Amino acid sequence: MTSGSLGLRSGSYGSLQQQFQNSLFSIQTTPSPPPVPAARKTTKMFKEKEKLFHWICKFAPRKKVGMLLLCVVSALVFMWVLYVGKGEDGVGIQGIGFNNSSDFNFPGSPPTNVDQDISVQFNATVINKDENITSQPPSPPVYFTGYSLPPGNPCESFTLPPPPADKKRTGPRPCPVCYLPVEEAISLMPNASSFSPVLKSLTYIHEENSTRSEFGGSEFGGYPSLKQRSDSYDIRESMNVHCGFVRGRKPGRQTGFDIDDSDLLDMEQCQGVVVASAIFGAYDLIQQPRNISETAKRNVCFFMFVDEVTEEFLRNSSGLDSGKMLGLWRIVVVHNLPYTDPRRNGKVPKLLLHRLFPNARYSLWIDGKLELVVDPYQILERFLWRKNASFAISRHYKRFDTFVEAEANKAAGKYDNASIDFQVEFYKSEGLTPYSSAKLPITSDVPEGCVIIREHIPISNLFTCLWFNEVDRFTSRDQISYSIVRDKVMSKTNWTINMFLDCERRNFVIQGYHRDVLEHWAPPPPPGGVAVIHPPPPFVETLNKTSHQMSVETNVSTPTKKTPPKRGKDRKSGPRRHRKVAAGSKDII
């Protein structure tokens, strides 16, 4: 009898078949062993198995071994089904045949590379899944697209009332503004950033050794050529432009306008809303914000930039200590100022807050002479989020034309007249025209730049960079350079600016006076006291119309009236007679 007559399948290593053939061959060629020992051995093995079976049955009811075995078998079957199911999903595992071997490898067979093959196939499966995931088109980014107030909200149908009929007061004045309650304004804060048209990535030029240009510039802002200036207005998806701080490793560190590392760390940790201001040359007195909610006090960053001269004045007059806090303001001392003109130094934090606070989402800039009297969240909701805007600034209360503004600056001696004329003529050569109704819906070419409300997105950051470059290249009067930068950016994109009324700006900030003016009106502040001098408090009118408790707040600052001196003794009130003045007389009323 041969092994072929057994009809056994051949395997890769022939483990069972080869052993069986060897046993048959040994039976045919060698004499059979004595039958008694074989029978004894078989009987002994059977008795041992029977003894083990009786032992299991004996303890199964007590130890519940049977239930444990059933659970183990069930778990193995479940894992087997899952394993086979994965193979049938078409992810690369087709069965359990390994290396063209028989269906199962019996004990005693040579070791195989099963684990290695499974690992390779499984890894390939994971990679294929990842490739399928990455090959799918990414989901489009989510942007903030604005919102509408619910029906019945008083702010939805709010209109400005006519100005009061006061012929004696013809100057600028505040007007009512409809704010939402602080809690509701905070709840409407966008979770996503606004869309930045065209521009997606903005980086800044770094130059350790810049070459002086014959056409303006500075060591702090660099000396961009006219070609570089022209290229910076060609809005593209990715741009690299001058934006101050051209030297040093990071803004505020060996760049000019240097800031201590501890202050820089605090500025980097500001990740939400920042309210910023600056006083250089002790030009103004610090005004403390009022009507600020507890949420804003905890979450909004209030930073005041001062130079060393102002720091010394604050320590002598208002008790500034080593804690660097003065009321709500976190005082940041700036060293190595880039300009000799304090007003030009003030343009650095005013226009480049996105570089000083790289992680902030929104910023509110107010000049040092202003007092904030409305919560920052309410201001952001009213002028940015509700309007779906990323940049808001108030228009000038009186002037709308850049050329008229330039002449007013010359008449007031705000800057060298020849420099103003050169700047205006250069803008005329680039196509700047006087303001007219043809520019609508643009309502003005002249801003009141003491307040800037903005979101830090690439397009708004580019706008303030280019605006700063004009201030650095030409005069420091940013009202003159505003319209040319805005028009050039808007000609390449559909980006717009919310220019709100000046009377609305005067609703949430109260304009004070510079320190040199105040010192002529009042005695110097006592040592150790906080000097806060401002006009009389505003009149606040609140209208509650719905269950939502929407508020219409009107902050009206009352101007200080000048009392004419009395002549001689006490004069009785009565009609005043105006005496005639002869021609050539020096006594002219």
TrEMBL record:
Residues 548-557 have a biased composition (Polar residues). InterPro entries: TOD1_MUCI70, TOD1_MUCI70_glycTrfase_dom. The keyword Membrane applies. The keyword Lyase does not apply. Keywords: Membrane, Transmembrane, Transmembrane helix. Residues 563-581 have a biased composition (Basic residues). Residues 548-589 are annotated as: Disordered. Residues 202-514 form the TOD1/MUCI70 glycosyltransferase-like domain. Pfam families: TOD1_MUCI70. The chain crosses the membrane at residues 65-83. PANTHER family: ALKALINE CERAMIDASE-RELATED (PTHR12956), HEXOSYLTRANSFERASE MUCI70-RELATED (PTHR12956:SF38). This is TOD1/MUCI70 glycosyltransferase-like domain-containing protein. It comes from Escallonia rubra.
